[in-house]
Fold:
Amino acid sequence: MGASSWLCWFLAVALTVSRAVSGFLLEGSPTSFAQFPRWVPGANGSLEFEFLTREPNGLLLYTDDGGSYEFFEVKLVEGAVRLHYNMGGGARLLTVGRGLNDGVWHHVKVSRRHDRTHLTVDGVTETRVLKALNHEFGSPESNSFVYLGGLPLLVTRQVGSRLTLPVVTLEPRFAGQFRELVYMGADGVARKQNMIASQGIREEGSEGGCQAHDPCMNGGRCYTAEQGPLCDCSLIDYEGTYCEKERQVEEITFRGREYVWWDLRRTGGQPLASQNDQLSFSFKTRHPAGVLFFSGDGKDYVNIALREGGVLVTLDMGGDPLKVTVRPDNVRFDDNQWHTVSVHRTVKEINGHTSFCTLSVSVDGLYSKKGTTAGPFSQLSSSRLHLGGADVPALLPGAETRSNFIGCMRKAEYRADSVRLDLIRTARQGSPLLHVKGKVDYMCLEVEAGDPVSFTTQESYLDGPENGVVKFTRPDTALVLPSWEAARQGSVSFKMRTTEPNGLLMYNSGSMAAQGDFFALELLEGHLYLHLNLGSGSRRVKATNRRVDDGWWHEVTLNRDAQAGRITVDEGANDFTTPGESHRLDLDGALYVGGVSTGVVVPPEVWTGRLGLGYVGCMRDLVINGLPADLASYAKKQDSGSIVSFCHSDGGSCSSSPCMHGGTCREGWGRFICDCSHTAFVGPTCGKDAATLSFDGSQFVRVFSDRESNTQAEDITFRFRTNQPTGLLLATTSPQSSDKLELALQAGKLRLTVKLGDRDKVVHAGNGLNDQQWHSVRLTRRATQITLQVDKEAPAIDHTMGRHSVLQYRNIHIGMISNKWRPSSTFASPASTSSASLLSSSIPSGGASSNQGSIPSFIGQMQSFYINGNYLFEMARAGHLNKMEVTAVFGRGAQVVHHPVTFKTKTAYVALPQLKAYASTNIYFQFKTLQPSGLLMYNGGKGHDFLALELVHGHVHLIFNLGDRPVRIRDNKMALNDNKWHVVTVSRPSSLQHTLMVDDNIATFTSGGSSENLDLQGFLYLGGVPPEMYTKLPRHVVSRSGFEGCMASLDLNGEAPDPAGKDVPIMSNHVYPGCEGPITKCHKNACANGGTCVQLWNSYSCNCDLTSYTGPTCSDESTSYEFGRGTGLMTFQYPEGRWPDSRRDMLALGFMTNQDDAVVLRLDSANSNDYMELEIVDGNIFVVYNMGTEDHPIGEVMSKVNDGLYHVVRFIRSGPNATVQIDDYEVREKNPRENVELSDHKVLKKLRSGIWHGHQLSVFNAQSRLQIGGRRSRRAASIERPFQGVMSGLVLNGERPLDLAAERDHRVNVQGDVHLLMSLPRGLPMQGGSFDFNPWQRTPPLPGPSPGEGDDLVFSGAGSGCDMDDEDECIPVFDTGSGDDLITPVYIPPTLPPVTKPFPGPDIPTHGVGVGEQPCDDEEDCYTGSGSGEFHTGNGVVTDGDHGDDMDLEFSATHHPILSPEVIHSEEHRDHTPPPHGFETTKKDPGSGPTTTSRPATVTPSRTTTTTTQPPRTKQPWATSTTPATPTSRPQPPPHTVTEYDYDYHAFENGEKSDVKEDRIDVIDKGVGGSIALIISIIAGVLIIVILIILLILKFKGHQDGTYKVDESKNYEGIPTMPTPMINGQGNGTIKPGDRRPVKKQSKDVKEWYV
Structure:
């Protein structure tokens, strides 16, 4: 460029005075730059400068030879300096540095040495050798100026003629600081350059406004201009002053002749070069082929095209072409849906001659493929770019298609290193670089107005206007469009195709002010009819002379002008004129296409609308008043399940014999239709047992309405049987009209009487119908024509007399006409009852009485009663009709199971087409399983919409969301995982009412939201979902595994797919047709060590929680720890804030010890004095627990455990009741008495109600800390009563603290002498000071009374000292002791060893909650939801407390409120009988440690019984050996997670310690064997004498008859002794099964006294 050519421009530049600049700052705005003198390096020269920035990308320097081919471009690319240059031998790239956007000054130098070019950054140099004929860079006359940071706008607008590298204008501008720009020429002299022009610069070091305040949002870049901080939003998807508004997505429509392009070589420009480039765009089309994108330079190109509905990418880098095709099975991308394509190329240079290119292609982020190629290339070049096509697409390199793209594109973004180009936005803004061929629309428009949609159901209907073909696949679907604006004139045209003879095509009602205006088009018997009413009379026009239900396309055109009009079908035209004087068609509301929605009342002239017959077939090219309407767009927005965007007749076929039980099949459009009227079944395949009602002459069914109904058409079918010759079958009545339709038996014949106006018509059919056989009746009326048919006889056809054709009625009576309204109707709501009574009173007495007098009531049975699209009896049984009174009795038919399928594992699933439940939902299926939980059904939707059915703890849960909020409805039956068939029905009787029916139990919910439609999309999953989907399910769906069991008889809104059929889109492994039960079953030897066998659907598992063992069969040793003599403590902390409230506790562990006194473990509460402690007292095991009232001890005094051998302890608490078992000894039970002394006023005062209900508190509140191996309060430094020995297999409420300790879980803290063992020892060595093991120390269990009943064991409060959960105003009661330290040894004779019985899983029943009661634990205020994750409202609604947006089932008054399985049940209002008082005694307190003396006033006696008894046996005192323990387990409860909380114990601090110490047996010296033998002989002789005396006493006492009182009013948790797992079992205080009988209570109590 010459200096004279820039003179005018220089006058406009703000800075025109040349000055030496040591440093300056470029703001980086869209117009900022700095201009310096030309650089003429010659063959040897250099250029250097320094920069500082924090931006990763930006143009540093640019200069060229004035528009030929030589240039130098230096830029930042992701923090690295890249030199892009061309000296005549081709463009080359050099890259040096990394992370240079670090806010530090960096030095850059570009130097030339003949054919070598060097790039040096901070002393690091890269060199490239480029052979060229000329080594000189341009000339002083033609070279451009040197630009730093960007180019002037004037230069960027002259891309074609001024710039050698036009794409430099796309580079982001540099934001940062420059200094020390120095040139060096051929003379070798370095010269600092002066700035000659600039814009958007400031002096180096000057403060910017962006540093003080950055106003830019959403990632916009802030730069400081003269007017203050400004925002650059060009590189983000936002716009506005502060990038605060989301930018509208750029869209473009191609119609096959348009495209966007650039060709840099046409202007002599150099190509865009990069080492990485990426293209992303979205498209939608219905065409399977077309060019999407092309970019290349010579042999370097990438071509992206659609071919056969898949995406094909062809890449060539100068070697062999690489092709990557993305075309998944069963998926096409030409489905007129938006799909996103991402293509990424990367070049990595291996050496100076070879590079490696990687190509990645992704579609929708789901389907990805990758390819690689190698060759002699070093960069990616692009001199040509095409988007959407080319002049001749077949001539594009790599072309695989001959057509351009037809469809829409949006968000097309091309990136090449630091260049980021929005192709559509740049083209729309009129860039000089990018051009547009043809006329395009910068919005997405449907290219073809004729794309069809299919209405798949008769309930389908279309919502508002653009074009497309839709298929109506069901007769209950429709589209809703805006009202047809045709007051004076209008036109409608469309094309249709179907094979079904009847269906409503279009309907538009009139405005409120209109006099009956409406417009309708319908198919009747294969002919098209037009209905038009301008307010002065209706006109019905038959538009066809031949049938149009032939499966071919037919074009329909309607034109109207005032009262005149013409309707044309294909070439046949029919002119018409409307009657009356009106010339205006005043329509209002929606234009329904394909049917009408529920609740829309159509005029009686429109027969298909009254009969509920929607259009099933295809429609396309809908044009209203000359404007195309996009049916496909409306279908996608509304009912995308039932109305699909294609047209074909494929689907169900009668060739597969789908109709069962004798049903008749006929072909429909893409479906089959089963006629079940001659069978005892209903449903889409005649697979459901029909509802049957029995009438005894006084029973009836009555359907009533609040308003009169006027009809010209009826379809009625039903079946009946009777032995009576006369009886009323059906009659209609009206309080405002004498019209009637009456069908009755007379002398064994059917007599039909139709009265319209003042004329009667009687028709007879059949003969001898009172033969107690089932007969089918079909009654059809079309205006004046009547058809009556019995069974398969020839129908009787007749016509009514007179001009009247409309039947007016309000009530439908079946069986008899009732003169008196019965408010006790099961199905009538209260509101309906009142209205019905008014209707009844308004019926003329003569009509009812005369009918009743002349026609007796029907006696017999009826079923399958169908009237105008509704099965009345089925709707009544499901509770769908509020305005219905039923006094007849429903019969119970045989359960029919068809098309069963087995899901053998929890990962199995089946994917079916989308559930068609947009406006109505009707789901029916059967299932049976043994699994308590699993996902039954799931279908996702648009936005928040979804529908799911799952099994949770044996109960069916329905969860759905219509867009307002999620709703959960639960069944109110017993657990359903009983391996029996159960029936589930889900339906929507109205838009706001939802019902879940399981077997015969109905739960109903009425929503109050504004959303009435369920917008589903995607597959309907049965039995589960793919594993990766569980984490993406709505959080209200709790299932994280699939259903395992059988499912059958599927009915989805009138369709009955076979889940195991060949047409299923997706079927995972382990899904099999038929219903196969468990193959591997439980047996008595399935689980070792007393483990409980749990039967699963396809296998079994062993529950080892109560065995102290582990492994799949409970045969492996559990984790074991040794607690040494140095004392140690293990502490398990529940997480803070997640402390569980437990009504039921289960504890089991194995241990070895030589100690006779120790605390094994202790569980404490975080916010109350509740506690539980397992301890050893005098070698016996005891458990003491307190739920807030008093300490409850329970233990085994007949067995010593300090013998160094392995023992297993099992403890289970349910409320205040508890059981404990040591090894295989008898189960000891605790059932505390349930009254309170009147003096305990504090307890009564604590209760809100002021009434004591006579029960113990039952909930362990806020379980916080478990101490293992002793106990220690926070203030104490030492461990009280530490445990020494081995502990193994500890399980507490499903938690395994020892396993967690071995895994170093953060919740477990191990202190002191505690060590992990690799295996269990055989036993512990006997230590000095411990008992020698002998028969006297391990006393076998006696069948006599347990502790607390037959002996005087009294424990003081160890943890609480207070009688309430609430510690407010709680004053501990201290026992100071009596000073009586008497020790009385008592000899207890041993018994036979206990019979070893496997230990089944216990299931202690809890008290139920009566109807209307609210569950409550033992907390003071008893607030709603206390102790559980749910709360109950007063109206029976169960709501998740932790999900505020959940709405659960609200029952009607006739049903009980549902209780969640997790709810803690209240025990109030329970009738209990207090047991007899026990005895008080002084002993060593197992709970607190100090010796205390109990006082009768402060201790509530408790009664302990045993669960098993034994018949009297001969006592054998020497049989002291014990069978090894065979513990077992119960089903593991849900794990609780609780938090850490430390607090001080409230122990009895004033108790006096006993001075009496136990005697210790000295260690025997081996050297004095003779003395020991003598002593042993003496002792043995004495013992033999004592035993003989005791045997004589027992023999004398054995002659007495004993009694054993059992308190059956108690519910407590027992440890059963049978190996069979208990299902819903309960312990009721009775004697357990076995061969033991009650043992007489000893006449004289045997007492043991402890200190």
